[in-house]
Amino acid sequence: MTKHPHTPSSTIAEAAEPPHRVMFLSVGQTPRADIIDDMLVNLDLPIEALEIGALDGLSQAEINDLKVRPGETSIVTRLADGSDIVVSKPRIAERMAKIAAAFQPNEFDLVVILSTGLFRDFESTCPTVNAQRAMESTVISLAAHGSAVGLIQPLEQQIDELDIPALSPYKITASYAADGDKRLLAGALLDLADAEIIVLNSVSFTEADRQTVAKASGKPVVLARRIVVSAIRLLLHGTHPVALPGVPAEFSEKLQRLTPRERQVLSLVAEGLSNKAIARQLGISPKTVEIHRSNVMAKMGVTSSNALIRMVVAAGHP
Predict the structure, then answer these.
(1) pLDDT tens-place string over residues 220-278
(2) Where are the beta strands (DSSP E) in 32-139?
(3) pTM check: above 0.85
(4) HSE-up of 55 (CA within 13 Å, CB side)?
(5) Max Cα separation, the chain?
(6) CB atoms within 10 A of CB 315
(7) Neighbour-count burial of 59, counting CB atoms closer than 10 A to its CB (0-12 exposed, 13-18 middle, 19+ buried)
(8) CA-based, 20 to 30 A from 211: which of 72, 159, 201, 286?
(9) Which three-class secondary structure state does DSSP give residue 248?
(10) Sign (positive or negative) of CA dihedral 40, 41, 46, 48
């Protein structure tokens, strides 16, 4: 288990509440400071960040056995030596699910499933942010609004593997590029010429990648890391939230109308979870979730979950 020391810039945030214990569960090997430290910089919260990788502690033979086989869907991840490896999505997802299920009640204030591409729920006794669910919900909300959405995946084979039934009614186009590869990112933009909004659909993509794509395309670009950071922020902010760095003042003011529980419900609604799923994560009844959800809609001034999600996305991508 790797720890990431993090001191928020706001002394007010430090005084308001003790550090939150946040566990980041990734597909590969730890440490992934390239992702986690970058995300922590954008969280003005006292956080004790820990991480576990699904490939931690495995021998080379065990890792090789998890490599993608013919007929399996794939996911790319990074090893401790900095090299990339393409592993079996269903088999690594099962391994991650077992790790998440083993966490003890209240062991962590939040568990973050730090990977897009894992199309499953992870049972945990701790509140959980699932990067894939959050990104899927974001894409659906943007597409439902009438926008043509372009996805940039990290692997070429993931274009054909993309199978999200909820997206079938919408105009979604996919291409691929490795993070940091300006040539491939430029090539992906040619494939996505008709897209109105571009989504960098992997936590491996950086803010530099987002700026490269935004500058070259002149279009709004959604970054997976920002979506995850927004979800963490909403779930963890205390009773008296301070002004949030990089968040529009109007959105921040609306957030301060919400109770801590309503902010948690807001984040999980933005992840596309049902009332029953939210109730399981927060340890409350579905009826109570329904009441909180109604209060959130009224206080945020929206009439649908899709509108709420678009608001959260816009706030995270000013």
Answers:
(1) 898 988 888 888 887 776 544 444 445 567 777 887 788 888 888 887 887 777 888 88
(2) 47-53, 74-78, 84-88, 110-113, 128-130
(3) no
(4) 29
(5) 55
(6) 21
(7) exposed
(8) 159
(9) coil
(10) positive
